[in-house]
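Field: COMPLEX_INPUT
Field: COMPONENT_COUNT = two
Field: RESIDUE_TOTAL = 553
Field: MODE = joint
Values follow.
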Amino acid sequence: MKTLRPLFIFLSLALAGSYAFALEPVPWNNKDHAAEFKYFQESAAFTAEGWAALIPEGQERALQAAKQPALERQEAIKAYYSAAMAKWSSTALRDYTAKTKEADIKAVHLWLGKEKAADFSRKLALTHSALKKARAERLSDKDALALEPYLLPEAIADLRALKAASEALNNRSSGEAPKGPGSRSTAALDKFAGPDPSKLGADSFAKLYDNMSASGADPVVAGRGQYAAGAARPGAAAQLTAPATRTPAFAMPGVKSAPAAATVPTGTAKSGGLTSDAYGITIYTSGAQQPQTFRKGEDAVAAIRRMPDGSITRIVFYGHGGPGLQAVGPFDVDAESAGIMLKGKMARGGVVQFAGCNTSSVGGPTLNPAVGLSILARRLLYFSLPYFQDRFGGTPSDEARQQWSRTWNADLARDTSLNLRGSVVCGYRTFGLVPGRLPGVTAIIGNQEATTPGYVAGKKACYQDGREVPAQ
Amino acid sequence: MIDLEVAIEALLLLGVSFAPLAAGIILRRKFRPADAAGSAAAAPVTGAQKMGRLAGNILFWGGILGILFMIVLFLHFKGKI
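Field: COMPLEX_OUTPUT
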């Protein structure tokens, strides 16, 4: 016992030391927690003084609680800004100029910085004044040129024809036939939804920005985290303050949700085996109440081809997976084929779910022993084992190592998200264990040929445009 | 040389899943209840001894669970589950 005593003392000291170290006070606006502090400022949760008055444990708790919502908010603002700085159509012009609030620009300033807020502010000021001018007189070529970086050509053309269209409408109301360029296409602008642009304080946007302080002394209240994730559509422009409509994280399309019998009627797809032969593709489309399910990948591809663009809100590929590859029975899906299959078909913010093992990279370090064992097994099974198989087959050692070093940690979800811009692509960092696949259990439940996984025990990761986003 | 490196890595990775089990066995032997009972007349079982035995049990059963988990993952990899 005496021999072990120093070990216990050392471990106790180390634990106590690390605990004390972790609980050092965190300074206000600490760069390591930049997103969290921005979130605090925006939601007016703390001021610098209030933060300093907190005990370190309280600070730690507050930072932990704010971590996830702060990251979500940051991504939402980035998506909003990205959509706002794209060239606007007539409809987007109408929406942004009518609905953008000072709070939205403040939010961009807080989260993305002074320069981006200035750019956004400049764009709004310019488009507001152009709209105002277009109602009074025809825009000159110089005006049109100035608008080019901000508006689509059709929007500029509509603006230039706005005066003539409004005159034509006036004439029609006084009994004359409508005439003048663009009388039809300018209808969107003529029905400008907001108040008169001159009353919107367009000129004040730039001033507002320049005089604004978001250093933390004055809490910014813009939006207060009410942003609806994925509202980066121009049609839903300037809705940073819109009420949130969120789906719960980790919501998997469960078996309980009655998979539709589009191609595989439930109940007829049972096999008599003890072990599972479950795999399939499930497609959720906007407007349809029931999803479509397919056992054969080729059938799913044909069905997807017939679907209108932007109609798929969620698609689940279920089956065995591996680094860089998702198998759906005999049908294999990799990042490239998924990109080709779904190109243009995904709705904005639609979710592609690879419900297979190791369909994302292992990610960062973890304290979860099950995740650790999964990573360990992945390295053994997808690096060590194939390496020696290659070596026994006569492949040179450096070539074999290079090959399997590259592929054992491949990230199918991230690579696919780069091929499907705007969509959220999810995979599993670990082996995904599905209770319903256990031998015997599958026979009792009678889901040997299930096309959706139901509950999956695994660590999920989601990506949008190559960047990790909260799991969906 | 590369073969050796990969082989050592594989052995270490395999060893990691057995390490808790080995540590658990050592601790359980070190703090065997029979020893404690035998010496009870001389000295009562101390808190540290109880803690040592508890740690040994946790490591031992955790190690077994870990190895079973690895077997499940391997069967999953082979497509049996």
